[in-house]
Amino acid sequence: MSGGFSSFREFYPYYLSEHRNAACRRLHFAGTSLVIAIVIYAVFSGNYLALLTIPLAGYGFAWVGHFFFEKNKPATFQHPWYSLLGDFVMYRDMLIGRVSF
């Protein structure tokens, strides 16, 4: 089930199915936390060049999780916007206990 999706609601269960490995989810969580910290730092310090590190922080952790633990191709290659949104929704779901660490 990696074909076309007509909505994020339809995509999200697929996204979760690509993140079954706890180490992969934890790496996503770490990367997303770092992205949030970089944005906060950039806004409060005025160092907007720091924002250039966001792709490395976000994708670096996630791709390590997929290639070494999940053993699959990141969803971002086929569904970049849904995947980005999925990462933040999964982050929230991990924080509130809907998705396990």
Can you describe this structure?
This protein is mainly alpha-helical. The chain contains 4 helices and no strands. The model has no long low-confidence stretch (mean pLDDT 95).
Strand content: under 5%
Radius of gyration computed on alpha carbons: 14 Å
The number of helical elements comes to 4
Average pLDDT over all residues? 95
**Largest sheet composition:** none
Helix content: 55-70%
Choose one word for the global shape. globular
Q: Give the CA-CA distance, first to last residue.
A: 24 Å
Oligomer: single chain
Q: Could you write a compact summary of the structure shown?
A:
This protein is mainly alpha-helical.
Write the layout of secondary structure elements.
Elements: H1 8-17, H2 22-45, H3 54-70, H4 80-96
Helix pairs in contact: 1-4, 2-3
Key attributes of the depicted protein:
single chain; 101 residues; mainly alpha; 67% helix; globular
